[in-house]
Write a structure and sequence with these properties.
The protein is of the alpha+beta class. It has a domain of 59 residues. Helices cover 36% and strands 28% of the residues. Strands 2, 3, 4 and 5 form a four-stranded antiparallel β-sheet that branches. The two termini are 15 Å apart.
Amino acid sequence: MLKHERDPDVAYRKNGEFIVRRLAGETLLVPVRAKAVDMDSVYILNETGQAIWTDLDDGSTVPELVQRLTSRFDVAPSVAEEAVVGFLGSLVEGGLVRSSAE
């Protein structure tokens, strides 16, 4: 769970270097740590995960990410928020994303 998920002023952005590849309709995200590829931390992103990941380039808040998902996909805001918070939580835990509050 995110510490600041309800704070509309906290933005999340990518943290570190990554190798990103599209393969068979999915996106593979591999973090690069200490100049080596971390194959133990490979993320496979579906279309929703890819949309969220792309929106983290310049930093985005949870409400902004939810709004973008609901405009791109036929999904209720509550479902989009659950997806955003869950996905961001795993990325923050893995060190791939950081918040502006940290």
